[in-house]
Amino acid sequence: MKEPLSSRRFEELVDQAMQELPEELMSRISNLHIAIEESPPATAEDAEVLGLYEGVPLTERSADYYGVMPDLITLFKSNIEDEAGDADDVREVVRVTVLHEIAHHFGIDDDRLEELGWD
Fold first, then answer.
1. pLDDT of residue 94
2. What CA–CA distance (Å, rounded) separates 32 from 69?
3. Which end of the chain is flanked by fewer CB atoms within 10 Å, N or C?
4. Phi/psi of residue 35, nearest 5 degrees
């Protein structure tokens, strides 16, 4: 992408992607935070990763799940912009990345996402 989006505009796209989720999914999201970083840490296994889910998926939580730090979805702005190619495509790449990471929150792994065409 020639010129990166402002951080504010990128955050707006993430907010839009979240608002477009069906209410039945939104009502089930629990203890989740979304963060935006410019790029993945140097220690990341995949330097081109667009997003990362860290936490305990809903399908693995037990009855005594409480008092824990929120699950974290981190979106990597520069990688998303690189994947998009131009500013017009960033919105779609953000949307798909948010959906992909939210799927992990619901316990859907990468293999299943690939089967569903969301790799």
1. 97
2. 9
3. C
4. -120, 155
Residue 34: CB atoms within 10 A of its CB come to 19
Give mean pLDDT in consecutive 10-residue pieces for the chain, a chain of 119 residues. Answer: 87 96 92 96 90 94 88 97 90 95 92 79
Q: Report if residue 35 sits inside a domain.
A: yes
Which residue shows structure tokens 């065409």? Answer: 117
For the chain, the domain total comes to 1
C-alpha to C-alpha distances, 119 to 27, 31, 57, 100, 113, nearest whole angstrom: 24, 24, 18, 8, 6
Amino acid in the structure at residue 73:
I
Total Cβ atoms within 10 A of residue 45 = 7
Q: What's the whole-model pTM score?
A: 0.90
CATH number at residue 41: 3.30.2010.20
Q: 3-class SS at 54?
A: strand
